[in-house]
Amino acid sequence: MSIWPSPPPYSLVGKHGVSPETGHDDRARFNFLAQLNTHLATHVLPGNARAFEQRVKPQFVKEMGREPEDRHEVRKAMLADSHFQMWSALRRSSMELRQQNGRAVVLRQLDELNAKAAALNRDSTQLRLDPTLAIPAYIRKVDFHCMPGGYITEHAAEDVSAAANYDIGIFATTGGGLGRYNDGAGHAVAHWLQTHASTLKPKRILDLGCGLGHSLLPVAEAYPDADIIAIDVAAPLLRFAHARARSMGVNNITFVQANAESVREPDASFDLVFTTMFLHETSSVAIRRILAETHRLLKPGGLCLHLEQAQYAGLAPFQQFMRDWDCLYNNEPFWGHMHELDLEALMETAGFSRAAMFQSKADAIVDEAIFGKANPDVEDYGRKATWDVFGVRK
Amino acid sequence: MTSPNSGPQAAPLDWIALSGAKPSGKRPYFLDDPAVERVLAITLAIAQEVAVLRERLDTVERLLEASGGLKRETIEAYVPDPAAANERAEWSRMYVARVLRIVQQELEALSSPEKNIELSTTADELGRT
Q1: Global pTM?
Q2: Is the confidence metric ipTM above 0.85 for this complex?
């Protein structure tokens, strides 16, 4: 039992060498949003199921003589419901406030922040940027989770602002669900590996779509002797990730600007390849190419893991519809397609054997002395810090 | 897409306008009247700023109480201990619930239809029985 409230105050969020400075009111804004999002998830979101069962579905049945068959029919019907409208309007507005708050902190100290990152990155051989890299359309065209400018926009030379804004706001969106350093997923991967693959002693590890490296650092710390390559297409993320890792004393990662669809590494050169919340931000063609790359890059006997929210197959249309909210309303346009793909079939096409595939669950692992345990009864579809693990051995 | 402008003649960044920039993609509006939803967005921003004011005032009060004197930097550096954090979180929970009271009441109407009967219906009933 934590002595702190849930969500805890923003002042407990971990600091590192490229953390933006926050004032009292900045922290108070994030405290408000964490409370607001917790309230919405706990008290307002459950009303959608009630509205669906009590008035939306009966009306649909009355008009059509049958229940809605898929999430699209549920959506069409729910969009006319006053409770769903109000919850959605509040959730969307909360996302927009979060972006404005984070950007206001970061952009007003842009030069100082970029200088801090540059000082940590200077002359490093472990940050390899490629300004000639073609940015794939699915990253170029989408401002994910309503981040103006997405991952790649630069307001100055050596800009890290997109990444810094991403980093400081995760607390508000998840109510602290990912822990002090937003690394609850990384600890979950490290714990999963040590529990389920204890004989694996990886010499080389590859993280595809590493972002800020926040889900990678716990894995890098779990295998301090491993040589780790982390790739992403966005230079602002990589600059920030490298500086952040350095300042936190993690030195066994090389951050490389590259496209996960074609990684310039030799065949069979990694013992472990993994992604965390990455595949849903790609595209239909790209995901197939990325899975093929994981097969090419893995050594025989090597392990591949993907962490994502649960797939839609087997879920009731209403559950699918709720999980799909972020797809259309929080700028995650591939989310819906990705969650209805048969990932096992895709991995088979990529060259893996079905017999070598497995699925399991992983919950975020956070410092419970501060963050307490997540309430298992609160389901904040698509936001909850619990994932499905899709794995395969080559 | 990218526009590095850190040269010596670069205009200073308008961080206020940039903070509130619109993300790509058409914004979804959920309420029947988009104007009402815009007012909701403005109201929520004001609700946030009231929470910020309340938290700042709470800090001022606690620091004044503790020391008898106060500097602005002390407010900026203030971090709550567990007891203060719990009191503030309690206030915040009540505050959000207060602001979103109408949403709670609409939900209660949905879950307890027997307590959501038109007054005219009850009046008719009482007139008849």
Answers
A1: 0.91
A2: no
Q: Which domains does chain A have, with CATH numbers?
A: 10-125+156-173 (no CATH), 181-393 (3.40.50.150)
Taking only the tens place, the pLDDT of each residue in A263-274 is 999 999 999 999
Q: Say whether A143 and B19 touch across the interface (CB within 8 A).
A: no
Would an 8 Å CB–CB cutoff place A331 in contact with chain B? yes
Q: Does B93 touch chain A (CB under 8 A)?
A: yes
- As for how many domains chain B has, the answer is 1
The CA distance from A147 to A103, in Å, is 9
CB contact under 8 A, A331 and B93: no
Q: Per-residue pLDDT tens for B75-112?
A: 888 999 999 999 999 999 889 888 888 888 888 888 88
**Residue B106 is assigned to a structural domain of this protein:** yes
Mean pLDDT in residue range A30-51: 94
Task: Give the separation between CA A361 and CA B16, rounded to whole angstroms.
Answer: 42
State how far residue B109 is from chain A, nearest Cα, in angstroms: 11
Distance (Å) from the C-alpha of residue A174 to the closest C-alpha of chain B? 16
Whole-angstrom distance, CA of residue B7 vs CA of residue B128: 83
CA distance A164 to A103: 9
